[in-house]
């Protein structure tokens, strides 16, 4: 039987789309936007890859393991594509995201059954690419950084992704940290205009969204075009967003210590809708390593920044990213990171073994640290960070916190939401409180979540 191309496949009422997302929140946002782009063409999302006419992998290139996953997943998708073909259905496989951007041509060599390769700045062309792919044989690749901004071509979301939504306000990075691929995969730093962000935020709230997390690789470097040719920073944008009726909570991630302006710190003090949580990656506590990383600040600069934040907002919860085993990291350098963590105390954190990435300066260094050393440093660091997270959570026991409920839990009658400090909190109730913010007394601290009861 001749294969029917997904675009012209009328054997099912709608065309099915399956999308797998790895990486940061910006990829989650991008995946939702790809769904928005394909919905008008009749695509609906299926949780089963076997049923999908179009399979999209939205990939992450940040560490080598993230990249390896793409090729092993592609092997699985190839089998699905072959099986579907035996049953008379063709399947289109697209690889999007940061691996596509960095290694698009290698993917096509290693996995020639991939039909479409598109980067984080070209995914607005996906509908056109799917159509083109239906008309010709061979693969299509779009990874040149375009002059136009993809945001000008994305349709409005027609279905809210839940009560809590991501909104990308800034893309790309010009900082070129020694270890990082993001400037190469996402391109130069660019802020979206204020009005476009306000329109998108209001639209999300009309669809029922109660919490918006503003996203950017360096979100606090935001400098978007405001009214009458003015330039707005993140604090001013958040102040304006906080006036949207029904928008209960605003968050932002990821911030760079160098771009943490006083106005943003003051916004934490002044705006109740701005949640008391800052994810401010420091990466290392050693000045020598911070310099080698090209981070542009010292560990004392970071400590002073945290002091200032705590002076303005004493109950603020802090979070960070750490890399252990950057080239040249000695035992005293690592101990300086441990000391910084002990001094500051984080509510939660992400920590990683340094992973050499193609094209980055650190990958060329001769002073690479052995895997066993990186393993043991990461273990020590994570034990400390886990302790601190547990301590932070335990401090909230018997306190009453407002919780925004977002989804059902695994157990019957259980619903789950987030505290202002981004802690997962679950309660058991007969009421349907999804989308509502309610006061909850915290009764118990579990490993990574809290349980409580309605006040
Ligand atoms: N823009 C953010 C981080 C983006 S990448 C910032 O500047 O902080 C997310 C995290 O991945 C980084 O904070 C870093 O901790 C980690 N990371 C990036 N490149 C890495 C690498 N080569 N090896 C290990 N971790 C890495
Ligand atoms: Fe990567 Fe550094 Fe840019 Fe963050 S600031 S995205 S770590 S280059
Ligand atoms: Fe990964 Fe790209 Fe985000 S490399 S972390 S998906 S910007």
Overview of the molecule:
The protein is of the alpha/beta class. Among the domains are: 128 residues, Methylthiotransferase, N-terminal domain (Rossmann fold, 3-Layer(aba) Sandwich); 55 residues, Beta Barrel (OB fold (Dihydrolipoamide Acetyltransferase, E2P)). 34% of the residues lie in helices and 23% in strands. It is built from twelve helices and 21 strands. The strands form six sheets. The protein has a six-stranded parallel sheet, with helices on both faces. The chain has a five-stranded mixed β-barrel with strand order 17-18-19-21-20. A three-stranded parallel sheet has the order 7-10-13, with helices on both faces. Helix 7 runs parallel beside helix 8. The chain binds S-adenosyl-L-homocysteine, iron/sulfur cluster and FE3-S4 cluster. The site of FE3-S4 cluster has 13 residues, from helix 1, helix 3 and helix 5.
In short:
By secondary structure, the protein is α/β, with parallel strands linked by helices. Helices cover 34% and strands 23% of the residues.
Terminal CA distance reads 63 Å
Assigned CATH class of the domain at 15-142: Alpha Beta
Percentage of helical residues?
25-40%
Would you identify the CATH architecture of the domain at 15-142? 3-Layer(aba) Sandwich
Mean pLDDT, nearest integer?
94
Global Rg = 23 Å
List unreliable stretches of 5+ residues.
Answer: 1-12
What form results from the Cα inertia axes? globular
Instruction: Compute the number of strand runs.
Output: 21
* Class from secondary-structure proportions: alpha/beta
CATH fold node name of the domain at 15-142: Rossmann fold
